[in-house]
Amino acid sequence: MGLLVVGTPLSWEESKKYFDHVRENGIEQFIHMYENGLKKTNDILLWGDEIEYIVLSVDEDHKIARVSLRQEDILEALEEHEKSGFAVDASSLISGMHNSVPIKPEELRELFHEQVNENKTPDLKKPFRAEYVTPTFHPEYGRYMVESTPGAPYGSTLEDLLNVEANMLMRRIIIQQHLAKNEFPVTLTNFPLLGAKDFTDPPTTANGPISRSFFLPDEVINSHVRFPTLTANIRTRRRRKVAMNVPIYVDKNTPQPFHDNTIPWDRDLFPEDVNAREGAALDNHIYMDSMGFGMGCCCLQLTFQTTGVDEARKLYDQLTPIAPLMMALSAATPVFRGFLAEQDCRWNVIAGAVDDRTEEELKTVPKSRYDSVDCYIANDPRNLSEYSDVPLVMNDRCYKQLRDAGIDEKLARHVAHIFFRDPLVIFSDSIHQDNTKSNGFFENLNSTNWQSIRFKPPPPQSNIGWRVEFRSLEVQLTDFENAAYAVFVVLLSRAILSFKLNFYMPISLVDENMKRAHARDAIHRHKFWFRRNPFPSSADTATSSSRDQFAEYTLDELFNGSDENGSFPGFVRIVRSYLHSCNPKASVLYRLERYIQLISQRASGECMTAATWIRRFFMNHPEYKHDSVVTQKMTYDLVKKVLDLESGGFDSDLLGKTNA
Ligand code: ADP
Ligand code: MG
Ligand code: MG
Ligand code: MG
Ligand code: MG
Ligand code: MG
């Protein structure tokens, strides 16, 4: 979540004086990065993932799981230990791997082939010292969250992809080693009872002045001053609390209409308490009123370095239509604030959770600063301007500044769009920055425009290249699944570049797909727009973007291909032909195939998304009263089941059948 600067944030009123200062200098910083970045044309393909975890505290006596608010202690312990190198017991890695394909001890060396010093074969019976793969751990918005990344980005080889699952597992084990006996890192996107009664350890009360939420105490917010400031400034800027209303899943005993009695309708503690009574809270919906409901969700993100700026711009564009589809396929969020929802994904809740638009701006500014991409940016003759067909708000002065510096129209529009928003937090000690050496002002805005795909220019004075971040994936329950989604998107992005695939379609249709991707059981109940012919063809640059070029497909058709409905090749087939074009060793193919099969079976419905699986778990629970309510016992039992899967348990309904 952005860079953590040490210092004092300005009050919202004071910070307004510096908005234009931040913008003007941020653009100057971008121009410097752009110009220096033009020299970068030989970078290698590198990539890395980010996984976010919820730390749960489990009370076995009372069978209750709660979020543990010990983030600071945990990260401090991790940081302390990081200096001396983490020690991981290899046997715990082996037993934790997806057990439908047992990993033999000798295979572990191959898993870590890059990092293991060949001369010193690790003795697998002893703790496996992993200094050379020291991952990093970061704070996140929720004070019950931790984020981890691999110690160094992965390279471009297929063999590198075989390290991913073990690396993820190792990171989970390392976090686990720094927790109390009753604490566990879980990769649920959302804690089902977040904002319900009695959901934190230690206990808290929702009455804090920062978020002013009915449900979330300020103690769930990361205590670094950036996070409470972000929270308060969004509320101040929009002049009311944030308000998310997710339709409730209506079961046979759900009262109709559903009027939520867990909302303290009559509270009069803060001026914003009237918001709910005055229409912010809707009947038949799960109402949420605080940034933490969104930013407290966990996701899986992937960052790709490209060979240069042109390739980064192309990859950004081609991944834009993929983002909603992969989100639907990774759906894992069927419950909010203790109620089953009529949707399966977190995205629109986060969009609402950081939506800083005033009521007037809702009429003129189409989207939250957290939303899907608004315009394509590639210098590609196939990037027709009519594909960027949704209204684009821009800061006109920034646009002019960019154009005057020679930045082309497409990139200038993107950056001026990002710079339309106000800087949300300005630190008093970083008001003066050397624009040739810093990217602080640029990142102030770039990192608070949370788009489905993020364009990351090369930071000054570093050897990092042009990068593109894929941000729509919901985090999966197990490392096997997280590795599968990561590996699949990596392979698809390689196929995109290698085969020069053309996924261009109007942004308005991408937005429509993003809406549909949220739907409950979207795999069976919705179709998605896509380009009929994703292969490069001479007709591509024809000026017509006629709607006939796009059709609606099920996710099964899009991933597994379809010979009917105008025939679509399918991303799984595309990925497989890319793999074969690399002439991989049989053993590599065999291992990667497990991941591809999971993706394929999720799309076909042969196995379930986490959202469907969790929903079904709750709906079949003996304590469930068919009234949409998720209880503490139901949540505890889910957590136990998830912990079992995370340590190698198997469930073919969720994880599919592998024939590899
Ligand atoms: P942010 O939170 O800003 O998105 P993080 O630092 O948390 O960024 O994660 C960045 C990810 O990018 C990590 O997985 C890291 O391994 C990876 N990464 C780091 N350097 C590069 C690079 N040069 N190219 C591609 N990926 C990189
Ligand atoms: Mg994060
Ligand atoms: Mg991060
Ligand atoms: Mg970050
Ligand atoms: Mg990220
Ligand atoms: Mg936008």
From TrEMBL:
Chloroplast recorded as keyword: no
Classification via InterPro entries: GCS, Gln_synth/guanido_kin_cat_dom
Record keyword Nucleotide-binding present: yes
This protein's pathway: Sulfur metabolism; glutathione biosynthesis; glutathione from L-cysteine and L-glutamate: step 1/2
MF term (GO), any: ATP binding
SUPFAM superfamilies: Glutamine synthetase/guanido kinase
Keywords of the record: ATP-binding, Glutathione biosynthesis, Ligase, Nucleotide-binding
Enzyme class per UniProt: ligase
Enzyme Commission code: 6.3.2.2
Annotated GO CC locations: glutamate-cysteine ligase complex
Record's catalysed reaction(s): L-cysteine + L-glutamate + ATP = gamma-L-glutamyl-L-cysteine + ADP + phosphate + H(+)
GO terms, biological process: cellular detoxification of cadmium ion; glutathione biosynthetic process; phytochelatin biosynthetic process
Family: Belongs to the glutamate--cysteine ligase type 3 family.
Protein name per its UniProtKB record: Glutamate--cysteine ligase
Provenance organism: Schizosaccharomyces japonicus (strain yFS275 / FY16936)
Name of the encoding gene: gcs1
